[in-house]
Write a structure and sequence with these properties.
This protein is mainly alpha-helical. It has one domain (2-86). It has 5 helices and no strands. The protein has helices at 2-6, 21-24, 49-59, 62-65, 70-86.
Length: 88
Amino acid sequence: MMHKLSKKELPPVLDSLFKKNNEIHKYSTRQTNHYHLPKTRLRLLQNTFVYNGPKFWNSLHADLKQIPGFHTFKRKLKIVLLSKYSGD
């Protein structure tokens, strides 16, 4: 879903759930183009998609985020995730 959100392929309603850091503040930082992680007081809220979606997307390599097609992105992501467990 984060891939489709970054490519503006989802309904605008979801844009209000996910903001980038440059929309929150105007400071020039290394994470300017990362999605903002909402502040949570409860550990329970850190287990929601609104928190974990941007957190996982921000952790991906920039080359992977730039893949234009969703199916190609899924295939490459699967290869990257499986390579972590196979020891490559």
